[in-house]
């Protein structure tokens, strides 16, 4: 019987411990010694906090192909670093201008803007360094497939492109389809990459890979929908960041259009859809099933 | 007889043409369509300008191992995208706050700050996507070695770390050794990566790889020294950017300490040192020899 609370806590502990080992001056040295202030800012932007859902998805997708959790960790760390870099940059004054993240000052508040820009750049760069390392997977062909997957999920046709569309959408004129497409890129693309990277670690054939991709896309929609509902219903304390912000900035979310109750029904439907794509995988996919359901029930 | 002017012009043309093909909405699509404004900003930050010295170094190092120029192009484009991303971010108001780059408005001036941050992120991300593609090299083990090399050269112990130290150094207290070490990272690390990536494309053994690394480190010092001398002696028109800026901001350059004439002598010495490391390679290294000499003679 799969235990979501235990598995996700175990994953979060492993991510925290390994990130802390990897984000040190010796581990980040290159042709020269790593800059201390930059390492400190990269740590601030990625340690102590976060639910580490993306590494969990990598682990859970890999588990379908009998890849043990330890062998899925490093690829998960790379996805998490990309997620953290995106938060550091999104929080900047020129972007969402947030002072608080996970209940602590954002990187540009704790350090300064220049350092936060460089810390994001450093986390993004190091994600690819991690994937290139043999500890990620012994086969270089698998590692290069992971690099391609992560780059596609986070670039101009993925997360960064979604963030660009989100900024453009603030000026209004977005249809419901535009919102869905923007969110699929901004949040969904990295969730999709995480699931696919887990499958690639396990040597997934094209058919299971495409079922898992469909799962990931539905799970990503569920995640975003839950986030939008929480932005309306949760308190700032529970979320560890400012809430009510999307509505306050006039952001065009689906929830704003249809109301909280209809959004909750849509969330249940999309979780059911996500779980449906896992039909052929049996109990090894219980982790991914539990995570999709967790997306619908989370309170922060 | 190697013709530097012809080879560098040919390389610059090839880089410009291929970058223009690669930085389009269809080519940058991922799980979703690439965001048009982001693609436009990525193009603004990387097309029409630049001497394309890093792709030239990749090509010239690869030539030592008989790799034809066309087969060295894609790896060169990846290094160039990383170079361009660093310029886009360095020009931001929170960093060097430059309005002009290569005689045109910088990305945050032509677009806005948020778009410039995302454009830099997009270029960095896409550099790794390019390296992951089979067009870079048929062997995935070589491609993953290139990813590792580029990430090391541009991360916290490379270019980004150097930029962090440079910002810290503006507050003073840097010794000559500190300046040299900062510059080796900020400018030198990516030049080093370019040369090593060319060698890796050619399957270089450890001994030639380390001779080429020594060349690249000396050539990087020459490049930076020439840049610092030009900052003092050249006009803003010739450089296509603001000059006299380092001295104006109290940046601690070697030139400021020893004077222009002594810096010119040091430049000649370091070029001689760089060329010395190429002794064993014969005429196939004429390209790298010419580039090191060009560094000492360039006027913009």
In short:
Two copies of one chain form a homodimer. The first copy, chain A, is built from 15 helices and two strands.
Tell me about this structure.
- Two copies of one chain form a homodimer.
- By secondary structure, chain A is mainly alpha-helical.
- Chain A has 15 helices and two strands.
- In chain A, strands 1-2 form a two-stranded antiparallel ribbon.
- In chain A, a hairpin with a 2-residue loop joins strand 1 and strand 2.
- Chain A starts with a helix and ends with a helix.
- Chains A and B meet through helix 2, helix 6, helix 7, helix 8 and helix 9 of A and helix 2, helix 6, helix 7, helix 8 and helix 9 of B.
List keywords for this structure.
homodimer, 300 residues, mainly alpha, Farnesyl Diphosphate Synthase, two-stranded antiparallel sheet, 2 strands, isoprene biosynthesis (chains A, B), Probable farnesyl diphosphate synthase (chains A, B), Polyprenyl_synt (chains A, B)
């Amino acid at each position: 019987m799969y235990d979501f609370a235990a598995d996700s806590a175990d994953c979060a502990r492993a991510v925290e411990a390994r990130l802390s080992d990897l984000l040190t001056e010796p581990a980040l040295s290159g042709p020269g010694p790593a800059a201390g202030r930059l390492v400190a800012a990269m740590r601030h932007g990625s340690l102590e906090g976060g639910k580490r859902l993306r590494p969990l998805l990598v682990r859970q997708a890999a588990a379908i192909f009998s890849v043990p959790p330890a062998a899925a960790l490093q690829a998960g760390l790379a996805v998490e670093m990309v997620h953290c870099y995106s938060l550091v940059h999104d929080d900047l004054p020129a972007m969402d201008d947030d002072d608080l993240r996970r209940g602590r000052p954002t990187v540009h508040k704790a350090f300064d803007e220049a350092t936060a820009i460089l810390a994001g750049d450093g986390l993004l760069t190091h994600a690819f360094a991690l994937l290139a390392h043999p500890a990620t997977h012994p086969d270089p062909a698998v590692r290069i497939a992971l690099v391609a997957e992560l780059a596609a999920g986070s670039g101009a046709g993925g997360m960064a492109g979604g963030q660009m569309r989100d900024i453009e959408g603030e000026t209004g004129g977005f249809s419901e389809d535009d919102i869905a497409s923007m969110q699929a890129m901004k949040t969904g693309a990295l969730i999709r990459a995480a699931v696919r990277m887990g499958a690639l670690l396990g040597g997934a054939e094209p058919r299971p890979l495409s079922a898992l991709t469909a799962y990931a896309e539905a799970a990503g929609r569920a995640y975003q929908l839950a986030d939008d509902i929480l932005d309306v219903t949760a308190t700032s304390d529970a979320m560890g960041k400012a809430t009510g912000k999307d509505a306050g900035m006039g952001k065009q979310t689906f929830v704003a259009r249809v109301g909280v109750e209809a959004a909750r029904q849509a969330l249940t439907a999309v979780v059911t859809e996500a779980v449906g794509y896992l039909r052929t995988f049996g109990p090894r996919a219980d982790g991914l099933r539990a995570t999709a359901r967790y997306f619908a029930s989370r309170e922060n």
